[in-house]
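ARCHIVE CARD
Drawer: 12
Card no.: 0347
Subject: one protein chain, sequence and derived structure
Cross-reference: see card 0346
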Amino acid sequence: MSVVPASHLPKLCVVIPCYNEEESIPVLVEKLTPVLEAETGGSWAILFVDDGSRDSTASLIWALHEKDARYQGVRLSRNFGHQPAVWTGIQHARGECIGVIDCDLQDPPEVLMELYRKVVNEGFDVISGVRGKREECPWWLQLAYRTFYRVMNWLAEHDYTLDSGDFCVVNRRAHEALKRLGEATPVHRGLRSWVGFKQSTVSYQRPPRLHGQSKYNLRRLTVLAMNNLVNFSTAPLRLATFVGLFMGVITLFAAGLFLANRVFPSFSLFGYYVGENAGTATLVLYLSFIASALFFCIGILGEYLAVVVKEVKKRPVAVVAEVTEENSNRG
């Protein structure tokens, strides 16, 4: 793919995934276009990604493009899901900076401009929007969100941005790094933090959704959480190793107690003497030992599988931010 010169690129291209958003698109365009125009002096683009909508979403996008070519569209062949739609938009977007915003206006355009200004004026490569209190969410779901992000930050093999969805602005360097990742199950918010560079956040409050309902039901949220976990952490694969080691320690400890009880009958385990039922203690210890060994062996397989998963993903070992120029005058 040829690289488009920066001088020919819009200053900001905004990626907007859409699924059955015929009511939201006119309101979004009405609110987003003026702030883009004012902030970039007309050098902007909006890339709608129609995720197999069943209403007139695609027709609205194509009608907008007919009026103004800065409104661009990508239509997927069916409903692939929010994250594939976002990732497709990232791959097709062209701009000096790339923003991602949902169509429901819960991510305010004014905040998007704040993210953009921090990238342009303060030298950041990635600025992510951090959500405050979710007014439409019940307390238990808010607790689940907060817990998930903190568990992910603890288990992930990089600094995982807390309480941040897909709402962000990245510069061209970070955008090119994202496009080089060949993920089959992409999770944009995780990959965005994984590529590194100079990152920061902006906190904001999400207003209620104006039209329709969220496309993320409990099942899809669970799938998203699992994709995050398995994409950015090998902890689940290593769990069997730790379980096996833990069970092994418990088995050795129990064996010591049983032996002490057998040698010193006055030392009893909760009033139980192992000699009362011959072979019971031996059978318990044998089964515990076998279970520990099995878990440990599964854990070893998990370690090898973790390496295989990393090889299959083909992520770069590291992302280069900058190199010194070669000195052609060296003697």
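Annotation on reverse: The mean pLDDT is 77. The chain is about 50% helix and 15% strand.
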